[in-house]
Design a protein that fits this description.
about 230 residues; alpha/beta; Rossmann fold; seven-stranded mixed beta sheet; two-stranded antiparallel sheet; 7 helices; globular; binds S-adenosylmethionine
C-alpha cells in the first residue's frame, strides 16, 4: 500500500516534468520516415521510445483493416496506413484528434479515419478489425490534465476495460498488438489480459535505463497464433 502511494507520488511528479518538457521542447519529430508535429498536450513520440518501438514492429498485411486505439500524434495509424488497407484511429483527447488528422495530411495518407471518443465507443456495433494496436497509459499518477491521461492509468482501470471490450471489435483470426512496461508491472497486465480470455506471445523487448518495454501479440484463448 505504502509502495503504491510512493509510486503514485513519484509518477505524478514525473508527469509534471514531462508536461514541462513537452511545452518547451521541440514539437517536430521524424520517425520511420514520417514527420509528426505534436502540440504540448498530445503524447509526443520525440520524448518516448515506446512510439518508435511499436511503429517499427507493426508488420501488417496489405489486406489488413487496423484499429489504432489511443492514437495521440497518429504515429501508429500513419505507419500502419502505409502497410495496410484501412486504418481507424481513436483518441479521447480532442487535441490529439486534431493533431493526428493534420499529421495524416502532412504524411499524405488518405486511408486513415480519426475519431474522438473513449476506447471503442466511437465505433459502430460490430465494426471489426484484423489488428488492434494499443500503447496504453501505464503509470499510476493521477489523471488531471489531457497529457496526464496519456501517461497515467491508476489501478489499470483502462487496461481492464480494453481487454474486456476488444474482442467485440476483432475479426476471427485477428490479433491485438499491445505495448507495456516493466515499471508498471507488465506481469499483472498479462494476468488481467488472461482473465479476459487473451493469450499472448512476446514479439519485442527493449531494455532502457530503468525499465524494459515489451510488445505482445494477443489472440483470444484457443484461437492460436496464425500470423
Ligand atoms: C501512451 S499514449 C500513446 C500514443 C500513441 N499511440 C503513440 O504510440 O505515440 C496513450 C494515448 O491513449 C489516449 N487515451 C487515454 N485514454 C483513452 C481512452 N479512454 N480512449 C481513447 N484514447 C485514450 C491518450 O490520449 C494518448 O494519446
Amino acid at each position: 500500500m505504502q509502495r503504491l502511494m510512493l509510486q503514485r507520488l513519484i509518477q505524478g511528479a514525473a508527469c509534471r516534468v514531462i508536461e514541462a518538457v513537452q511545452r518547451y521542447g521541440p514539437k517536430t519529430v521524424t520517425i520511420a520516415g514520417c514527420t509528426f508535429v505534436v502540440t504540448p498536450d498530445v503524447f509526443n513520440p520525440k520524448f518516448f521510445v515506446t512510439s518508435g518501438l511499436m511503429a517499427r514492429h507493426l508488420a501488417l498485411r496489405p489486406t489488413d483493416e487496423v484499429l489504432d486505439v489511443g492514437t495521440g500524434s497518429g504515429i501508429q495509424a500513419i505507419v500502419a496506413a502505409q502497410q495496410a488497407q484501412r486504418v481507424v484511429a481513436i483518441d479521447v483527447n480532442p487535441e490529439a484528434v486534431v493533431c493526428a488528422r493534420a499529421n495524416c495530411e502532412r504524411n499524405e495518407v488518405d486511408n486513415v479515419t480519426v475519431l474522438q471518443g473513449d476506447l471503442f465507443e466511437p465505433l459502430t456495433a460490430g465494426e471489426r478489425f484484423d489488428v488492434i494496436i494499443f500503447t496504453p497509459p501505464y503509470m499510476e499518477g493521477p489523471v488531471t490534465t489531457l497529457l496526464s491521461r496519456a501517461l497515467n492509468d491508476p489501478g489499470k482501470a483502462l487496461a481492464r476495460r480494453f481487454f474486456a471490450e476488444a474482442r467485440n471489435h476483432l475479426e476471427p483470426g485477428g490479433s491485438l498488438l499491445v505495448l507495456y512496461s516493466s515499471i508498471a508491472d507488465h506481469e499483472e497486465v498479462l494476468e488481467i489480459a488472461a482473465e479476459h480470455g487473451w493469450q499472448h506471445e512476446q514479439i519485442a523487448a527493449r531494455k532502457m535505463l530503468l525499465e524494459t518495454y515489451f510488445i505482445y501479440r494477443m489472440v483470444p484463448l484457443r484461437a492460436g497464433f496464425k500470423r
